[in-house]
Design a protein that fits this description.
alpha/beta, Rossmann fold, Alpha-Beta Plaits, 6-stranded mixed β-sheet, 5-stranded antiparallel β-sheet, 10 helices, about 30% strand, ABC transporter ATP-binding protein, transport, AAA+_ATPase
Amino acid sequence: MRVLHIDNLSKHYGRIKAVERLSLEVEAGMAYGILGPNGSGKTTTLGMVLGITRPASGSFEWFEGRYGAGHRRHLGALLETPNFYPYLNAEKNLSLVAHIKGAPTHNLDELLELVNLRHRKTSRFSTYSLGMKQRLAIAAAMIGDPEVLILDEPTNGLDPQGIAEVRETIRRIAGTGKTIIMASHILDEVEKVCSHVGIIKNGQLLASGTVGAIISDDYLVELGAEDLSTLHKALLSHPGIKKAPIEEGLIIAHFDEKRSTAEINAWAFQQGITLSHLRPIRKSLEAEFLEITSN
């Protein structure tokens, strides 16, 4: 089922085009990352689809219209810094959130277990680390058993340990079958958590698809030889090759991991092939992301 359909959505603040004719779709069960530099329109997009701010033009639809105007009850969202009563413990803070939402409280222990805070449920919120506070906020967003969890920069400001803990929490929730929509400017975060990604800059969608297709960790090398067909056939039998398309008289070899030019050259020589061209064309995941967003 299509959980979210965005069609040519735009939002302008004076002359600033925060979001410009953005279209994308999220299917049920996806962990969908909206990836882009700071100021690219990620938060504005989430604000519009959550009904917090009104679009200038375009439209969006949740759950193929199944719930009508009541779709918000099926969404859980964390858009800002967690805001709880510092003198109350986790259990009491979540009970208050459940009361405000009109949701049952019988499963609060399960939610605390899901975010790995059950052992600290009687500790005051003021004693929590930033990562623990963020995980409690995720638990609060899950109250009412929403079908979709929406997160805006969920690891922002956290130390490495906090980032790892929040990341694992999100993966655990995704593993339950929930649909997750997460905005982030951190490529590594999206790659490790999400199954699909949409890359945006200046409010426009630049690329979308599975993480493997858009943010591939293949190591790319241009190869050439006098007998290109022999080289191509040999490459397809290489144990580390994923694919090797021929483009403009050269082979673009996709290796499963980084390999030195000396290693590749020695391998070709062992196959009886003398390379006439050998050039790595991919340095890192960050380089690919920067290439997509630099135009």
